[in-house]
Write a structure and sequence with these properties.
alpha/beta; Rossmann fold; seven-stranded mixed beta sheet; Methionyl-tRNA Fmet Formyltransferase, Chain A, domain 2; six-stranded antiparallel beta sheet; 2 domains; 311 residues; single chain; 15 strands
């Protein structure tokens, strides 16, 4: 049985089906109302499951007695879980004979929690990956069974790294199941002293503090792209920054953090606490996302102006 909800989980579901595993059912979150029309939209995992003709469960509470009874009726040997969105009780973990395997988007024990992909970028990690773990009653604390690593490029943002890990998760779980069938998966206990927490991302975390080092600001922009997006303000309007890069080679850094140093056809350069930020793609409130060149055709941004609120 497969349990998952967002796009990240779709790669694993597809990989399991294409590898020939019998997925007896999929458990996902209920459809959600979105947009002004409040139209009910199915989660991506549901769409994928129905395309393969797999039965779908959408319990509001997976721990509810009727949901538990339905789980037992499927008599699955193993539950595979990827970003499902509800906590499984020990009673649920004990239902399948081989327990529950979780596809976690970090190299455990580091980055336990809801948002590991964003936090590895924020922290400037050079590598990340997928950990297949045996679930227990804790949050990402179970024994590690299998890992696959990838490098994080200086250009990776949340979207690109998410997509790489989605594909890697599919490969990792199918490879792990081969080893499970052969009895070759060796559980490894997690060391709590090496762990760190990756809490849920919220919109406020996208606000840029220009007193920080330029490289840290660049990491925040990449970690928050495309959601919730990194932002500052310009003449009282929200200004989203979609793509930038740090620089430490230009003159004139002894300026106020957030001060515009130059605004030319290629980029807008803004002073940071250390170094400066070259902004290549941005979006003013009420306008479309655009290149710095196109932005400056309509906005007369001048050197000496200051972005954001002073701390």
């Amino acid at each position: 049985m497969f349990m998952g909800t967002p796009d990240f989980a779709v790669g694993a579901l597809r990989a399991l089906v294409e590898a020939g595993h019998e997925v007896v059912a999929v458990v996902t979150q209920p459809d959600k109302a979105k947009g002004r029309s409040k139209e009910l939209l199915p989660p991506p995992v549901k769409v994928c499951a129905l395309s393969y003709g797999i039965p779908v469960m959408q319990p509001r509470r997976i721990k509810a007695p009727e949901a538990m009874e339905q789980l037992r009726r499927y008599q699955a040997d193993l539950y595979v879980v990827a970003a499902f969105g509800q906590i499984l009780s020990q009673e649920i973990l004990d239902i399948p004979s081989f327990g529950c395997l979780n596809i976690h988007a970090s190299l455990l024990p580091k980055y336990r929690g809801a948002s590991p992909i964003q936090h590895v970028i924020l922290d400037g990690e050079e590598r990340t990956g997928i950990t297949i773990m045996q679930m227990d009653a804790g949050i990402d604390t179970g024994d590690m069974l299998y890992k696959k690593e990838i490098p994080i490029s200086p250009e990776d943002n949340y979207e690109t790294l998410h997509d790489k890990l989605m594909e890697l998760g599919g490969r990792a779980i199918t490879e792990a199941l081969v080893l499970l069938e052969q009895g070759r998966l060796i559980p490894e206990k997690q060391r709590d002293d090496l762990s760190c927490h990756a809490p849920m991302i919220d919109k406020s975390m996208g606000e840029i503090d220009f007193s920080q080092d330029a490289a840290a600001i660049d990491r925040r922009i990449r970690a928050m792209t495309p959601w919730p997006s990194a932002f500052t303000s310009y003449h009282g309007k929200k200004l989203k920054i979609w793509r930038a890069a740090p620089t430490y080679t230009e003159n004139g850094f002894a300026r106020r953090p957030g001060e515009v140093l130059s605004a030319d056809k290629d980029c807008v350069t803004v002073a940071a606490g250390q170094g400066a930020l070259r902004i290549y793609e941005l979006q003013l409130e009420g306008k479309k996302r655009m290149s710095a060149h196109d932005f400056l055709l309509g906005v007369r941004m001048q050197p000496g102006e200051v972005l954001g609120q002073q701390k």
